[in-house]
Design goal:
InterPro entries: Cyclic_di-GMP/3'3'-cGAMP_PDE (IPR052020), HD/PDEase_dom (IPR003607), HD_GYP_dom (IPR037522). By secondary structure, this protein is α+β, with helices and mostly antiparallel strands. It has 2 domains: about 1-150, 2-Layer Sandwich (Beta-Lactamase), CATH 3.30.450; about 170-360, Hypothetical protein af1432 (Orthogonal Bundle). The chain has 14 helices and 6 strands. The protein has a 6-stranded antiparallel beta sheet with strand order 3-2-1-6-5-4, with helices on both faces. The N and C termini lie far apart (about 70 Å).
């Protein structure tokens, strides 16, 4: 039964095993669902058991709309609904979809790390009053699951720390600010969550892209400083050197991953695809592999748009930031040639959130002090 604790399996594989194990003992259980919180206090599903069917909600608008979830966020205590049929929900559309998936009773448990709320674990059953007399049993299992989830979350953060430490040791300067990387991650998640609603990917994929999008330019740490920090227009020879950074980044990350025995192959593919292909163009005229259209991995198509948006909106030594209106026009004109049209649609539907992210994570432009 405890094979779901095997760390050689992916998190989703372990959650599948957990669900099937519990269902053998309690066939009334429909399954479990795990959500994560984005930068706008929305919850999105990163895992759900297959038995829920297509009606299970994948996205919950701001948790402020749900007194149940808002209270859980502040108290970090679990919550049980004994009978969904008589429960007055403030988010009626989601409530209806849960009922359509035959969820009659529900146990919700906060997921948090270092006292920071990061999501919710839902366990649902087909009959009413199921959890109240088994609360100790399911509390124990919920703790096990949340430990798995927070362990996965913290492993990703630790992996980031390892990569950034290696980069600091190999290259003491960084041409991009940390807030640039944070904004690219947030824009990537915005695009990904739109694609979830369109059925093009799932929340687990979006979560991985969010966590790893900031590694897209790691190969620049191996580019000579006189080229990397130049504010002049590149010569053809300099441009050829700069264009090597996706391949150099893949080599660097592969070496780090081998050294630290990082063996999550699904996430490994996402990381390396982002690094190698974020300069491909939708029309096939990008680099390094001149991939075209959907030949370009979706994660790379997402990060390409996110990175370009932030570059255009940001101050650089060689340019002033563009207005949001000019960026919008550029994206529209580049849709289908430079960029995946669906990714552009995602951003055009979320320009207000783009502006919010930009203001929430501003760059600090350091002025030179007099000698």
């Amino acid at each position: 039964m405890y094979s779901f604790l095997n760390t050689k399996r992916s998190l989703n594989e372990r959650l599948d095993l957990f669900t099937s194990s519990v269902q053998k003992i309690h066939p009334e259980i429909i399954g479990i669902a795990v959500t994560r919180m984005d930068d706008h206090d929305n919850l999105y599903s990163v895992y759900r058991s297959p038995d829920y069917g297509d009606n299970f909600p994948t996205f919950i608008a701001s948790i402020a709309q749900s007194p149940r979830l808002s209270k859980m966020r502040s108290s970090l205590e679990l919550n049980i609904i004994d009978n969904m049929l008589s429960h007055q929900s403030s988010v009626k559309k989601i409530h209806l979809r849960l009922l359509q998936s035959h969820c009659i009773s529900s146990m919700a448990c906060p997921i948090y790390t270092n006292d920071t709320f990061i999501g919710v674990l839902f366990i649902n059953a087909k009959i009413k009053d199921f959890f109240s007399d088994k609360v100790d049993y399911f509390t124990t299992f919920s703790i096990l699951i949340t430990l798995l989830i927070t362990d996965d979350f913290n492993n990703k953060k630790a992996f980031h720390s390892i990569v950034k430490t290696v980069l600091l040791l190999s290259h003491h300067k960084d041409p991009e600010t940390q807030n640039h990387l944070k904004r690219v991650a947030e824009y990537s998640r915005l695009i990904g969550l739109y694609l979830v609603k369109k059925g093009k990917c799932n929340g687990d994929f979006v979560d991985s892209v969010y966590h790893f999008s900031d590694m897209h330019d790691v190969g620049k740490s191996l580019i000579p400083e006189e080229i990397l920090y130049s504010t002049e227009i590149y010569t053809d020879e300099e441009r050829a050197v700069m264009n090597q950074h996706p391949e150099l980044g893949c080599q660097l990350l592969s070496n780090i991953l081998t050294t630290f025995k990082y063996d999550n192959h699904q996430e490994l593919n996402i990381i390396l695809n982002i690094i190698r292909h974020h300069h491909e163009r939708y029309d096939g005229n990008g680099y390094p592999d001149k991939l075209e259209g959907i030949e370009i991995p979706l994660e790379a198509r997402i990060v390409t748009v996110a990175d370009v948006i932030d570059a255009l909106l940001s101050h650089r030594p060689y340019k002033q930031p563009w207005s949001i209106e000019d960026v919008e026009l550029y994206l529209i004109n580049g849709s289908g040639t430079l960029f995946d049209p669906l990714c552009i649609d995602a951003i055009l539907h979320s320009l207000d959130k783009v502006t919010l992210i930009q203001s929430r994570y501003p760059d600090v432009i350091e002025e030179e002090l007099p000698v």
